[in-house]
Fold each of these.
Amino acid sequence: MTVGLTHYLVVAALLFGLGLYGILTRRNAVAILMGIELMLNAANINLVAFNRYVAPAAVAGHVFALVVITLAACEAAVGLALVMAVYRNLETIHVDEINLMKW
Amino acid sequence: MGELAAFIILSALTLIPAVVVVTSGNVVRAAMSLIPSFLGVTGLFVLLGAEFVAGIQILIYAGAIAVLILFVIMLTEGGTGLAIRQLNEQRLPGIVVAGALTIGLVVLVLRTAWPLTAGTLPASNVTAIGTAFLTDFILAFEISSLVLLVSLVGALVIARKEV
């Protein structure tokens, strides 16, 4: 039995589900960002696996995996800066206690 | 056979720390568990023949992003203690939604006939990726560099103290 495309896709689906579970259940904003990183990693596995098994002559999947990694770095920087700003103003980073705009 | 064994080991290395990341009551432990999970994904990239992406994954994810997350956990004291409840009241809906999506995705993946193509990757990954970035994907390259600049300036503006 050799490793095929579906193996990688199943692993990526499991990783995506774990990240989604983290996002839905965590109170801590930093832990929610960790869940987002897991989901982006799952998308990257998909991109590289499709590149390997569907279009091996091109490197488009690698290129877009690198773009996703770049945007993940941007998202982490901005997201964590927002967490810092919220903590400085409200003294909490629990997203269910941040309800200033809730009527 | 060796490829299958490597795949199983790397998948376990990716998924088991990911479970700790989303379930651990200790946020620092969750952040530290991100690192083996990222390294497992790196191993999967190497198994898929994407050495350059694997190197960048180690530099950016296991290096920069994990350290950034740990720094913010240390700077926002008060959210990380063991006595603080880390999960909200949506635990059951969370399990249902994430489980349903995962099962749906797995069923979809297993039932689809993928248009597989036999072939080999370019021998020199880095050369091929660099050429592709500066010819076919020049727009994506330029836009991502612009987004990087704007987001770093924005992060500095948001995170600095008011004067």
Amino acid sequence: MSTYPGSYWYTKEHEWVKVEGEIGIVGITFHAQKELGDIVYVEMVKPGSRVEMGKRLGELQSVKAVSDVYSPVSGEVIEVNPVPSDAPEVLNQDPHGAGWLAKIRMSAPEEIAALMTAADYQAYLGEET
Amino acid sequence: MGQAFSLSATRVAMVKALAGQETSLRYLPKSDSERQQMLEACGVSSPDDLFAHLPAEVRLARPLGLEPGKSEYEVLEYFRARGAENGCGYASFLGAGAYYHYRPVLVDAVASRGEFLTSYTPYQAEISQGTLTAIFEFQTMLCQLTGMDVANASMYDGSTAVPEAALMAARITGRTGVVAARALHPEYRAVLATYSRNRALAVEEFGYASDTGRLDLDELERKVTDQTAAVIIQSPNFFGVIEDVPAAAEIAHGRGALLIDVFTEAVSLGLLAPPTEADIVAGELQSFAVAPNYGGPYAGALATKERYMRQLPGRLAGKTRDARGNRAFCLTLAAREQHIRREKATSNICTNQALIALMATVFMTVYGKRGLRELAEQNLAKAHYLAARLPRRFSGPFFNEFVVQTGRRCPEAVNQALLERKIIGGLPLGRFYPELANSMLLAVTEMSRREVMDAVAEVLRNE
Amino acid sequence: MSDGIRKARTHVSQDEPLLFELSSPGKKAYQLPALDVPAVDPAAVLGAGNVRAEIAGFPEVSEVEIVRHFTRLATWNYAIDLGMYPLGSCTMKYNPRLNELAASVEGLASAHPYQPEALAQGALEIMAQLEAALAEITGLDAVTLQPAAGAHGELTGILLIRAYLEARGNPRRKILIPDSAHGTNPATAATAGYAVETIRSNERGMIDLDNLPRILDDGVAALMLTNPNTLGVFEENICRIAEVLHARGALLYLDGANMNALVGISRPGDTGVDVMHLNLHKTFSTPHGGGGPGSGPVAVKKHLEPFLPVPRLKRAGAAWTFDYDRPQSIGRVRAFYGNFAVLVRALAYILACGAEGLRSATLDAVLNANYIRQALLPYYELPHQAPTMHECVFSDARQARRGVRTGDIAKRLIDYGFHPYTVSFPLIVSGAMMIEPTETESKRELDLFIDALISIAREVEENPELVLKAPHNTRTARVDEVTAARKPVLRWRPPAG
């Protein structure tokens, strides 16, 4: 059982966002990486791209599957984590920390209100299984 | 439909009774008693019971209107008769995308081994290392020949490799236009048209210089825009003329487009400068693998630079280790492919021409570094011998194919005269290039004999 | 019970290097005849810039080394000639050697596609006979032999649908595909420029006929169906499905991958199918060759005939000729006419089997699958109870409770001398184990297969680690596919320094 950081917000598509002022740091949850298996390749939209809540931010590839990553928030991608392109395994090893995917300057921070807390997300996972 | 396929049920039964045992049973390895045991285990009394759940409306109520099964001898006789109707014993100067080369005996000796012939796609790497190792060697050799960094495990053929390369360029550049040379094989261009029509890929053509037969670089310059994903050329081109690949690359790259270079005569790779300026190389490997076989199956090559690796369609074999730390190979980067991405796949292709690619691998290995060179040089020498004796249409440099004007008589009439000498002449070009209706395309290989070439020259001189 | 013989043995031989590692300068395996014309200097004739340097890294090996290299490689492969492939929807049946001999007949392999037609009548007759036979088998009206593989045939079929609808004023936007479909189906639809709408199978694993009219709108061009479906179950409502589609101006495409359950029993053309592709390398016994070549002919009803790829075969008096005057054709889907040498093999098979033989093959294919189904029922979960045709799909539900999944069971099957079944497909069954024996398996081979799976089920209960770490008895242990994908190495390079 993994701990889901209490300060993060979670989506039904198994992404998380950590809010630091007007920046949202985004990644995938422990559950997501477990479902995907060993991640072999990560492809994100480029810095400078505009993204919308719930729309495609990038994709993750495992040996046997491809999964789209959807952005939990709308805004502009200001930074993409360079570590996963050389070492995609960081997403499996530390999905909530070193395996962050992108930093987004949020255009509508109030969107956070629609996301789940850690407790809600864990309950959601319980329902799913 | 042939008359032979409409036999009444009574007649079928009669013929069966006369023929005795069904010849097809050789492929059904069960005795009647075993069948009985199995039916009992399934809780039914006859095989038809297993189909009882099918609604009546879907059931075929009569036997198939096909002849009864033939014996091995009869089947072979049928095909021998067809082979005899195919004009045996002619010398041929046809090329145009399918070439006559000698096939080293090892090619079939290896490819006919049951473990290669009757094996499946190597998805289970642990029990497919033979196929996977051979594919890895194939991929390597194609890179060495073309100057590219990565090659896939083959496409259906050269003609379908072209649209796959075009779509790949569109994905890479995000652009929607393609500019293709008229000197690219006409049937390849036709396939490109079919594929592009439905994918919002606009195809424009640019011509060739009437004197040299080479690309009209000025026209190319005019046609390439910043919406061009790729320029597609063939070298040697359909007329056999060697193109100025670096010049075409410069024009393409100058506008941010990719260069796709196509080859139809793989033997040319043994002698000609590899198209290292190209971004994608697509081509036909038939020369390395199989006889012309009336058009197929062949194998297409598709190779590219390292940075475009993940956009390459088709199967890829990669090196890795097994759990004991030994070197092993497996299919990899499958996330590009249809069985995972489904509608987002780079292509719908679900095959590589594995057996044909294996044949090509054996051919390339038998000839090797020096042999491929020597083979190509023989092709060059023989082609230039014949060309020197004929009125060439184009002045550009050529490898083993060239276009000849047939003077007063049309090419078809010349070919008639050649047929009387049991020679199949070149391809009359009027069907593909109306402006060249008085010309034919001749291919000469290491198989062409001097005395036959002298006969061709004589007929063409006499017109 | 098994008599203890394992069918796939490890090969006792030294480790075999790559060709490049065997290479050394001066070794050769070829011998060209002397030139009978003067040699030419390539640089002089072509210009130095057009001539390459030597092919760096290309191997130089001797004939004996080549023979040993590829022979050793071959012994590392599983193959139909060694044992059963229970792969669902692959129809890995025996590849008759008679087919090989037929394809090697003089005059067939040497025929050039641009040979004058008067000198190609043998090839054209073969193609015409095969077209007629496939039309009769499928119950459809016209056949093209041009597509090079099943997926290629699928693409051709969807392009035909698009052309037909376009001629009627509206190509429409989307194609309905069941969630049980093979991955090529949605990939093909996308390649043809259509959007894909996935439709859910009902609890019996079939198309939900009641739901179909609700999701069928005027934007739907076609439904792509596999029959029997990937659960090995016959779509009992197929005639009704066709009617519903046709009433809305949409067409029914059949993926013919599972034709091995239907030949001589049911003809798709009689059940409302408008267009379908066949896989000659499945139903018609042509060899897989380690991944190709195949051939994917497409058969159509009359109304789609004008759109077929060009050229078409037609009669010119007593002879055959290619007709290029086909204004409504979708064009070419490849150069030349088709994978001719594969067509020869398929026709050889059809001629050898005949009507009765083809039907008997279907009966045995379905019997074999049912025999396996009833034998494994006590040990593995069967999620769909509908009658099995030529393939059955179990799930790993019981074994998953012990932490063992379908992929692990499949790897352990290798230790018993079998190639795995199809793992994790169709997607609508969690932990799918898709098994298609084909008709060319003997009772003995089937019993060995059943015994192996029963034994593995027992191992899952008593010693799951054995299954989780499988295979144990192969020359190559479990391969690290993760590193292969993370750090792709797709060619040999000479060692540095």
Amino acid sequence: MTKGYEELPITPVSDTPSTVNLTGNWRVIRPVVDKEKCKRCTICWKFCPDGAIILVDGVPEVDLKFCKGCGICAFECPAKCIVMVKEGLE
Amino acid sequence: MRKVMTGNYASAWGARLSRAEVIAAYPITPQTSIVEKLADWVSTGEMKANFIPVESEHSAMAACIAAQAAGARTYTATSSHGLTLMHEVLMWASGARLPIVMTNVSRAMAPPWSVWVDHMDSVAQRDTGWMEFFCQSNQEVLDTIIMAYKVCESKGVMLPAMVIEDAFILSHTSEPVDLPDPAIVDDFLPSYAPELKLEVGKPMGFGSLVRPDQYMEFRYKAMLGMKDAHDRFLRVEQEFKQVFGREHGGLLERYRCDDAEFVLVAAGSVAATAKDAVDALRAKGFPVGLARIRSFRPFPHEEFKALGAKVAGLGVLDRSYTFGAAGAMYTEVKASVYSSSKRPVMKNYIAGLGGRDITPKILERIFEDLMLVTKRPEGNEVEWVEVAGLPRRWR
């Protein structure tokens, strides 16, 4: 599986985007959105450092393939409609 | 065509004749007149290049890296604190295997604040994966820039290079310089054509993350590139000689070393003065010679091994000092000589820091000291030359 040095390019180059790296499995806590309380301000979408918030009709959905569970969305949400829940304990 | 010009203008001409396509630079004494001249030529259209003014040397190198990755031949110039500010991105340039060529006008590091010649800045970049070529004349500055592009861009090497001129002694001193015909330089140095580059229609990431199972292989490949640069440099210089009729002595220039018993090693402009000292002592019958380090990276290890086996005493003059150790060139030469069949007695001379003159007289005193080294090897191994307050006099 491991390539010998001669088979490698001169420097590491990649023609695939980093979206092939599904970072969701780094997560130990996940954001859960209370869509009733959501004011549709989109602040969570603006602050998410991984672009893991997808807006559906202005309401956030979390893309769990990429969400690392950092909790910035929950921290920033002025309506306090996002809570972080331990994985597997929902 | 022969013109009288400073070392800085020789650098600018080197970049112009090499047809650098992107120049990104930030001014710093005593490098300023290099980029001033280039900016002037770009603005009048005499040189076809993109000139990117930036807010720091770190940004200058970052811009060169990006442009070079996109397939452009790039050039920058800096000095002293500007070079050390680049340190992080210098490693990026070599790791990404981008053959950028840069002039460093070698100047002391502060404090104490100083704008004068000293090799501390260049020596401190020893481990960045850049080639480092020290020059002793303005002609050599120009020629080395053209040769450096050819060495750097060759397929087996693909590493960046620093061409080093001594602050003021070369940068601001005018000498006659032969400007080669641009058409002949174009034949000697074809345009840059990398195998991998950034292209709009073909998105690619450079310098991607690799895991521990591949990191060493990429470093190994860079090591092979630097190793190849040694012989490539010699071949390129021979080719240069055939085309332009001059050469500057390979990676380690040896002056009157063939039958010498005591050889002094030096780099940069002081080596030219030391040749005069060698001539003066030879006229009196002393068996002395001068070995000039042109390439600090790749280091002329085998050349020193051979030289070390032939001489009784080998002195190394460092124009910088590595605190807690010795002069960096001294420790490198000593390491090379260790595997010689017969080892000479060695001594390190720290001289000329912060632009202090190293006169022919002082160099003669250094040679005289070196000639006694085999008779009293118990003396100081590392000696600071001409420090006020020390009992020893060197004039």
